[in-house]
Amino acid sequence: MQRAALFRGGDAPMAAGDLGELLVPYMPTIRVPKSGDRVFKTECAFSYDSPDSEGGLYVCMNTFLGFGREHIERHYRKTGQCVYLHLKRHLRQKVPGASGGALPKRRNAKLFLDLEISSDLNSDDFEYEDEAKLVIFPDHYEISLPNIEELPALVTIACDALLSAKSPYRKQEPDSWEEELQASKHAKTLVQLDNGVRIPPSGWKCSRCDLRENLWLNLSDGSVLCGKWFFDGSGGNGHAVEHYRDTGYPLAVKLGTITPDGADVYSFDEEEPVLDPHIAKHLAHFGIDMLQMQVTDNGLRDNDIKPRVSEWEVIQEAGVKLKPMYGPGYTGMKNLGNSCYLNAVMQAIFSIPEFQRAYVGNLPRIFDYSPLDPTQDFNTQMAKLGHGLLSGQYSKPPMKSELIEQVMKEEHKPQHNGISPRMFKAFISKGHPEFSSNRQQDAQEFFLHLINLVERNPVGSENPSDVFRFLVEERTQCCQSRKVRYTHRVDYIMQLPVAMEAATNKDELIAYELKRREAEAARRPLPELVRAKIPFSACLQAFSEPSNVEDFWSSALQAKSAGVKTSRFASFPEYLVVQIKKFTFGLDWIPKKLDVSIDMPDFLDITHLRARGLQPGEEELPDIAPPIVIPDDPKDHMMNHFVESLDIDESSVMQLAEMGFPLEACRKAVYYTGNLGAEVAFNWIIAHMEEPDFAEPLVIPAFGEVASSGAAALGAVGLDNQPPEEMVAIIISMGFQRNVAIQALKATNNNLERALEWIFSHPDPEEESDPALDTMDMENNANANILAEPGSEGPRIKDGPGRYELFGFISHMGTSTMSGHYVCHLRKEGRWVIYNDLRVCASERPPKDLGYIYFYHRIPS
Length: 861
What we know:
Blueprint: H1 2-7, H2 16-23, E1 57-60, E2 66-67, H3 72-79, E3 83-93, E4 126-136, E5 141-144, H4 153-164, H5 174-180, E6 215-218, E7 224-226, H6 239-247, E8 251-254, E9 265-267, E10 272-274, H7 279-284, H8 302-305, H9 309-315, H10 340-349, H11 353-361, H12 363-368, H13 378-390, H14 401-408, H15 422-428, H16 443-456, E11 470-478, E12 484-491, E13 494-497, H17 506-522, E14 532-534, H18 536-544, E15 547-548, E16 553-554, E17 559-560, E18 563-569, E19 575-581, E20 583-585, E21 591-593, E22 596-598, E23 603-605, H19 634-645, H20 650-657, H21 663-672, H22 678-688, H23 703-707, H24 725-733, H25 738-747, H26 752-761, E24 785-786, E25 798-799, E26 803-813, E27 821-828, E28 831-836, E29 839-842, E30 851-858
Helix pairs in contact: 11-13, 13-15, 20-21, 21-22, 24-25, 25-26
C-alpha cells in the first residue's frame, strides 16, 4: 500500500533502486520501437479517444497500440500486458504579461510531436501542456516522466523512442503521399510495340472476356485486360496479370484514372503501384493525350473558366445560414485530404438500421473477440466507426457558461466535434492502388469496394450487405434467329443512364453554348450557366431499352451475329442504390461530367421493371459454348505456363512456415494457388492438411502432362485442376456453396462471369449441398420473400415490392471523379441534414436534382 500511495502522487519520491525493483518483473515485456513498428499514440484502437480526451490515451509498451480509458482494461485482460505509457494533453490559457499581451508559454513542447493542434482555438490565447507517465496495471501505479535518473536505461530508451515515433498514417498526409510511390524501374526503358493500336476514349472491354470494368491498359502493346478481383470492388478475372506472365510486359495503367496530373500505374514485375515519369509519352503512343485538358484552345486554364461555380454553391448550400446539428447520428468526419468520398459513403451506410445493428449493436461482442491487433480487423474498425458516428460522444454542442468557468480556471476542455477516420481509411484501403492514395476517388467504386469487404468479413448470422443485393435478369436475343437466352447476375447498384436527348430546355442550352463560345473567343466572362433539365422518366426509359451486344456469338447460328440485351429486376432489394451515370469521355479523351438537373422523385415505383422470364412463344438459344480460340503458338504458351508454374513465391512460403506448417506443405500450397499470396495459400493448407501426402515434397509434372490437358490447362492453377481460391471465395461471398462454386468454375475453365451464369442455368448440382454453409438471417424484414432458402445454392436475396422512398443522396462537385468534392444529404427525424465532412447542419435547400448516388428504402406493403 505504501508503494501504491507513492506512485499515485505520494509526498515522497521513490529511490532509483525502488523503481528498478518495481519494474524488474515487467522488463521482458517492455520493447523499444524499431524501424517499421507502428506506434499508435494519437488514436485508440477501439474508439476515437486521443491524448486530447478527458481520460487521455494509454499506449502499450509491448504492442504500441493505443487505448482510451474505456478500453484499456479489455486489452490488459486479453494480453496480460501491464506497462502502459499514458499520454495526456492539457489546454490552458496563457498567462498575460505586464503589457497586457499573452506570453508564449509551452510545457513539454516536444513530447507528442504528431498530435494535431485544434484550429478552433486561438493559439495566441492558449497553450498546450503535454503530460506523460508510466502506468502499471492492474493497480494503476504511476511514474511521472521524464524520470531519466531513476528509471532503468531500457525503460527510458523505450519511452523516448515511443514519444518521438512518427504517426503510422504519415503516408496519408497530402504532402508526403506522393513520396511513398516510387518511380518504376521500367519507366525509362519501357519498350512500346509499334503495332498501330489506338485506344478509344470509351467502349473498353477486356480482350479475353466480356468484362467492362476494372480494365487496365498494358503500356507495351496496348492490350486492354481486366484486373484481379482484389484490385477493385467490381471484380475481374486476372487477365492483365496473365498477360504479363505470357509476355513479360510489366506496366499497365488503369483506364478511367487518367488525368492531367497523372494516372494509376501498376508494375506487375515490382508487384506494387508505381509512378511513371514518362506516362504522358507512353499514353500518347496509343493516341491518348492526357495533357490536353490542362489548357483550353483559347489559353485559359479550366480553373480560370470556372463553369461550375454555381454547382459548388448549390450543393453545399452556400449563402444560406445553416443550423449546426449535434448529438447521436450527427457526427462529422474530418477530410484527410481528398477523403470526402469515404466520408459521404460511410455517413449513408451507417444511417441504415441493418448496418447499425450488425456493427454497433454487436459492438461488445466484436470488441471482446477482436484479434490481438484490432487495428487490422475489418469488423472492429467498422464497429468503431459506427459507434463514433452514432453515439453522439464526438458531437457535442459548444459550451457557454461552462466554457467561461473553465477559462477562469486557466483550463479548457476541448470539445470532440467530429472524428478523424485515419485508422479506418488506412485499413480499408490497404493494398488498393487507388483508395490507398491521397487522390480523389469515385464514391461509387468505393461503395462497391466496401460491400466486397463486408461480404468477405461476416459478422454473426446477419450480413448487412444483403439489403443492397438483387438479381438482374438479362435477356439476350439473336436478331437473326430471334431466339433468346435468359441469364441472371448479382448486382448492388442500379446504374441509370442520362437521357440528354430528352432535355426539356434544349433552346436555352443551344443559346448558352453559343454565348459561351463567343465569350471564350473574346476572353470575356462566361455567361451564367444553363443546366440541362432531364426528366427522370426519360432516364428510367433509357435504362429499360434494349442495347446492342458487341461481338455477339449466336449459338443458334454458331457464328457471330447482331444481338440485343435488355435488363430487368429478378428481385427488388430492401435498399435500392441508384447511380446517375454522369461521367464520360469525349472524343479527345478529356473526362467530361454531364452537368444536368434530374427531377429525382421522393417516391419511386419500378414494379414495371420486374423480370418475367421465358415467355410463351419464345425459343431459347441452344446451350452451346463458343469455340475456343487457340493462340498462334500454343506450344510456346503452354511452355510459358509451365515455366511460370515453377516460380514459387518464397516470401509467401516463409510466412506460412513461420506459422508452424511443414515447409514442403507450404511450398505446395503456394504452388497450387498460383502464387496468389500467403492468405490464399493458407486456405489451401486448411483444406488439405488432413491428406496423407500433405507434408510430402512437391513433385513438378513433366511438360507433356501439363500440355496433355489441352485448353483446360490454360485456366488451371493446380494439377488437380482446382479453381483459384480467390475466385471460389468471391462466389461463396455471394451466398453460394463451396462445392457449387468449384463445380461452376471447373465447368467454365475458371471464367468468373461464365461460372455465375452456369450456376443459374444448373439449379441441381451434382453434389449434395451443406445447409450449414447457407444459413442466413430470416428476420430482417417480415414483409420480404427470401428467394434463396437455407440449404439452396442461390445467392442470399431478399425480394419484396418495387416501391421506394428516398432517404439520402451523395452529390459530387467538379469536372471528374478524380477531382472535386463529395457531400452527403440524409433525411433524419423528418428533415434533411447535410454532411459536409466535419460540418453537419440542418439542410434548407437539399439539391435533390444534382445528386450522383441516391439511396431509396423499400416502402412496406
